[in-house]
Hints:
Elements: E1 6-12, E2 15-21, H1 24-32, E3 39-40, E4 49-54, H2 56-59, E5 62-66, E6 69-74, H3 77-95, E7 100-109, E8 112-117, H4 124-133, E9 137-140, E10 143-146, E11 152-153, E12 159-162, E13 169-172, E14 188-196, E15 205-207, H5 209-217, H6 227-238, E16 242-248, H7 251-266
Parallel strand pairs: 2-4, 8-14, 14-16
Antiparallel strand pairs: 1-2, 1-3, 4-5, 5-6, 7-8, 7-9, 7-10, 10-11, 12-13, 15-16
Amino acid sequence: MTQNLLSLDCIAFGVRFQLNADSEPLLEKMLECAPFATQRYDTSAGNPQQFTLLSPAAHAAYRLHVGDRIALESAALQPALTELTRELMVHTANYAPDRVFVHAGVVAWLGHALVLPGTSFAGKTTLVAELVRAGAIYYSDEYAVLDEQGRVHPYSRNLQMRQDGSHEQTSVAIEALNGSSGSVPLPVSHVVFTEYVPGTQWSSEPVSAGLAVLEMLRHAIPVQRTPARVMATLARMMETATAVRSERGEAGETARALLQKISQDARPA
Length: 269
């Protein structure tokens, strides 16, 4: 990469990185791919991780470099931006000094957080959307961001919704669901392991705190780098949380059942 490049130094969750591109419009599109709450960083001191996107003018295809590694070559721009989004998020989650990122949807209800761990295509975004429509406050459709006390912080980007199992995603603002986003960290009251299975109904069974931690380790990004820290954070989270498991049918019915269950649990005996 010997050509002149435009650069932008950024920071997200305490992790610095540098975006590089061969045009201003391309650099702005790269910035749109950065993690939620990314800010521009006003110094180039040190050696932040480099993310470089080159246009077809140089190589007959878009070429994404992560450091010295070519992460992707594509004739179209969108696949390169999608891969850049993933690479930036993985880098940030792996190196955030005081946060643990878990693949999960998150909403707030009655002053506490409901965490829905799951992989892509498990239906967590659809369920989060229905929970918001039912009155819950939106925190995230993709990552539960936990601090060292086990509290969950907002990661309230637009929801990335799929239609009929398609890989294509549509960005949906929370306002389009008549919802609102959370702004403060909250303790977790419920962790719900669930996956959409057509024709089933919600019928939850309890999961022990220990098994819940082990299950969530599968969804925690930095577990291979800092396993002890991740384990300690998840254990701290479960000090205030109840975990349950169930297959689910339609998201709207499940959302109403979940919020009713949480409301019942919150009532004094």
